[in-house]
Structure formats: structure tokens, C-alpha cells
Amino acid sequence: MGNLYRLLTILSLATLVSGSRCTSVSDHNDSVGAKKEVVEAVPVEGFAEDTVLILKYHQFAKEYLFQDAEKAMFYSKHVLRLSQKHRWSKGKILAYNLLSTYYLMDGSYDVLRELSNETMSLSKDLPFYTAYSKYFLAESYSEYRQWDSAQINYRQAIAIFEELGEDSSAATCINALGNSYREKSLFAEAIPYYEQAYARFDKMNSDWGRATVLQNRGYLHVIRKEREQAEDLLKRSLVLFQKINNRYGELNVLNDLANIYCLSNQNELAITTAARALDYSTIFHSSQQTNWALLSLARAYKNKKMFREALDYMEKVIFNRRMLHTEYVQRQYTMFQLSYDNQIMDSQIQNKIIAEQRTVQRFLIGFSCLIIAFAAFLWFNNKKLRRKNAEISEAMARGQAIERKRVAAELHDNLGGTLASLNWYLFGIDKKVLSPEEQKIYESVHQMVGAAYREVRSLSHNLMPPELEEHGLVMAMHRLIDKMNENKNIEFSFNVSGMSHRLNNKTEFELYSIVLELTNNIIKHSGANKASINLTENKNIHLTIIDNGNGMVEPSRQGVGLKNVKNRVESLRGKVQIISQQPKGLKVDIEIPKTLI
């Protein structure tokens, strides 16, 4: 894109040098209402300020586009330079659109094609300018007689303009489509397009549009050598261009009229008209139009047998053609040189991008390695902590087991022994010497001491049942159920599924304590005559206790026992559900994660 900018700068400078004089905008007074503003040499820094300048210069360039090519190109270059500075695509599109219009009028179709392609690549989200790039591209194809490609692009541009409601632009493309048929000598096909374009411009009351269509249709009659019709249409077009003060339009029509006068031997009219065209082309700085005016003058003087004057003008024609050819060769050379420079620059940019990508890649690899190392450190540290936690948990479990054994032994040996001795001493008292009242007291005390002894033995056994420690949870549960079934009041059943191996000490003790607490609640409070304990091992450990008793206990009336059960389940990170059974009874469902066991 930078190369295209340099190319346009070189070409615009060449265009300005080829004019009759090179003056600044501030010094050149336009005889047809020119503005006298001065261009700022150094634009204000900052995008916001430069955007204002871009829009301002774009407006000036549009106003001068058909009045003074030098000024139009001058402002267009400033629009492009400031847009390049900020890499503003919209500004570059505005500049390319102006330059494309100029190079279309100047006949620089090689540059026009480059500009059209560049505009199309930038205007993907701007359909209006995409349509104009297709229009300019079609004009380039027409010049090189690539008719099919030209007509495809014309029709695509028309479709976009009509969809956007841009009737004037669509009519311009329709007029150009008529020109393409005219250049192919398909005059009958061209005329309906001219009529359609003229009708659209007439509906919009566009003098410029009507003048343009009249001129193009007039030139069709020039080609067909229908001079009267051609002259009439061209004069009507000239009046309209003069009305709207469109210098380029006047210049173009004057050259066409001079050509007609030459062909019809109206030599004085030809000389007068061509001289006016030459003056206008000098002001407009158009080498192509200057060449046409000089050629008409040479032909007119030749028709008048004024060979010296004809030769002078012909020499100017030849010189001007040589200048045009030189400019064309310079453009071609510059384009090839810029293409080569562009490839070198692209290669350098690509190498730079690759180097930057490698640097970023190395940084990312290094950063990734650091992250992996840190993650590995955290993983090993976490593993070490988990191992320590497991050791601590195991030590706590062992400590709790030892403490339970100690408390159980203390209860059994000390308190149990004391109660047994007390009971023995009671047996030594002779009841016969006691009064009836004293005998009742003696019996009550004897029963209470016996009951206390049995409670202490049961408590000592339940704190750490020998079978739980030696044979595991399943065996301890079987022994517990057998003891409870000795009561004969409630029928307990125990069902086990899975449990192919022992659980850790803490889990086994907590589950045993939970069963002990819940079965004790069933015996004391449920009023049931049947109960079942189900222990299942699959993905997790499931413990289910079901009875056919009184059912759900109100939460406000739940005692310490159920709270202890919930606390024990939470210590194993499990879940507990208490569900009422139909028609009566209660179900306690406990799930313990196997991953923690």
C-alpha cells in the first residue's frame, strides 16, 4: 500500500510537470470562481485534527476535479498522505476515488486499474465504494477492449448502486455501459442505454448527467458520420456544461466539435473551437485533451492549405505524444520498480514477522515451561501434603482407637470391677433381718447396681468392639445384629453386598457407631417390630436402615442421637437422607464417597 502511495505521488508530479506551468494553489487564480485558500504544509498532529483536514481537502479536491486538475491532484495527494499517516482505510478510499476519477478523465488506465483493485481490497464493508471500484475497473477493461470483463463489472456496479438507492451513480454506470457497446460498434444496442441513463438524470434534474449522456451519444453520431445530429447533441451538451461551470465537460465537448468541423471542412469554426479547447486544456492541465486540440488545429490549417501553421501544430502534436509516451514508459518502469521493491519489502517484512514470531514463540515456550514446572511443583507439593494428611489422619485414627481401648478398659476393669464388687457385697447382706420396707430398698439397689454393671459392660464393648478391630465392619455388624435379636421384641436383619475388602479404621468405626446409634433409636423410640440394615459397596458405600415404626420425627424433636449421626456422616464427607416410608416407618439413607475410603 505504501508503494501504491509512492507511485501515485510520482505520477501526480509527472502530471503536474507536464502542464504548461507549475504553480502553487495559493498563487494560481482560477478565472472561473477559484478559491484562494492556502494548504497547510505540516498537518496538525493527532488523528482527530487530521481527520478534519482530510475531509476538508477531500471537499476541495471534489470542487476542483472538473475545474483544475492540478489543484484537484494537489488536494487528493494531501488526503492520501494524511490517511496513510494514520492508516485510515476510509480516508484512503476517498483519495483513491478522487484519483480514479482524474485518471479516468486523463486516460491513464494502467494506474486506474491499480487504484480500482486497491480500493476494492479496502472497501469490503463499504458497498458504495466497492461499486465505484468496479465501475472504474470496468472502464479500464473497456479501454483494453476486454468487453466481457467490462460489462460484468458495469452490471455488478449498477446492481449495488440500485440496491443502495444511488440513482445518479447507477445512471452513470448505465451511460458507461452504452459507451462500451458504442466502442464495439453495436450502435443499436448502445442507444437504449443512453436513453435509460438520460431518463434517470432528467428525473433527478441533473444537468451534469444530461450533458454527459448527450456528449456520449453525440460522439456515437460522430463515429457514424452523422454530423448534423452529432453537432446538435454536442451543442446541447456544451450549453449544459457551461451552465454548471464544468470546465472539463466544456473542454471535452469543444474537442469533439472541433473534430466534426474539421471533418466537414468548416475550418474557421474548427480553428476557433480547437483554440478554445487548447486554452481550456492548458488551464485544466490535461495532456490528452491538449493533444486532441492541437491535432484539430493541425488538420484545420492543413485543410486551409496553411501548411506552415499546420506543420507547427503537428510538431506540437508529435512532441505532446512523445511526452505522453514518455510518461507512460515512466509509469510502467515505476510500476515494475515498485513491484520489485514491494516484493523485497514484503520479504523483509515477512522475515521480520517470522523473527518476531520466533521471539514470541521462544517466550511462550519458556513461559509454558515455567508454568509446567510450577504446576509440577504444586502437584508434588500437593501430593506430599495429601500423604502427610493421610499419615496424620491414620495417626489420629490409631490414637482414637488406642484412646477408645484405654477408656473401654478403664470402664470394664475399674468401674465395672467396682460395680461387680458392690453387687457381690449386696449378695452378702442377709435379707431376712431386714424389714419389708428395707427389703424393697435392697431389691431396688441390687437391680440398679446390676443394670449399671451391664450398661458399663455394654458401653465398654461398644467403644471398641474386639470383633470390629480384629475382623472388620461386616463381622462386627453380624455380631451386633445377633445380640439385638436376643431381645425378641424387634426382628433385625442385616444384608451386605460387595464389601470384598475392609475399609479404613475411621470409616469402619464411624459406620459402626452410626448403626449403633440408629438401631438404639429404633429400639427406644420407633415402636417398630421389624428393621433392616443394608450395607452396599459399588461406586460409593451405601448404608440404608429401614424400620416399620412411627415414621418421621419432627426436626424440633430430634435428639442428640440423630445429630451425632449427621455429624459422623459429615466427617466422612457423605450425605444423609431421612425419608418417611409408606404406609409407615422410616428410612435413613447414607452415602459415603469411596474416594475417601
From TrEMBL:
<dbReference type="InterPro" id="IPR003594">
    <property type="entry name" value="HATPase_dom"/>
</dbReference>
<dbReference type="InterPro" id="IPR005467">
    <property type="entry name" value="His_kinase_dom"/>
</dbReference>
<dbReference type="Pfam" id="PF02518">
    <property type="entry name" value="HATPase_c"/>
</dbReference>
<keyword id="KW-0808">Transferase</keyword>
<dbReference type="InterPro" id="IPR050482">
    <property type="entry name" value="Sensor_HK_TwoCompSys"/>
</dbReference>
<dbReference type="InterPro" id="IPR011712">
    <property type="entry name" value="Sig_transdc_His_kin_sub3_dim/P"/>
</dbReference>
<keyword id="KW-1133">Transmembrane helix</keyword>
<keyword id="KW-0472">Membrane</keyword>
<dbReference type="InterPro" id="IPR011990">
    <property type="entry name" value="TPR-like_helical_dom_sf"/>
</dbReference>
<keyword id="KW-0418">Kinase</keyword>
<feature type="domain" description="Histidine kinase">
    <location>
        <begin position="406"/>
        <end position="596"/>
    </location>
</feature>
<dbReference type="Pfam" id="PF07730">
    <property type="entry name" value="HisKA_3"/>
</dbReference>
<dbReference type="Pfam" id="PF13424">
    <property type="entry name" value="TPR_12"/>
</dbReference>
<keyword id="KW-0812">Transmembrane</keyword>
<protein>
    <submittedName>
        <fullName>Tetratricopeptide repeat protein</fullName>
    </submittedName>
</protein>
<dbReference type="InterPro" id="IPR019734">
    <property type="entry name" value="TPR_rpt"/>
</dbReference>
<keyword id="KW-0902">Two-component regulatory system</keyword>
<feature type="transmembrane region" description="Helical">
    <location>
        <begin position="363"/>
        <end position="380"/>
    </location>
</feature>
<dbReference type="InterPro" id="IPR036890">
    <property type="entry name" value="HATPase_C_sf"/>
</dbReference>
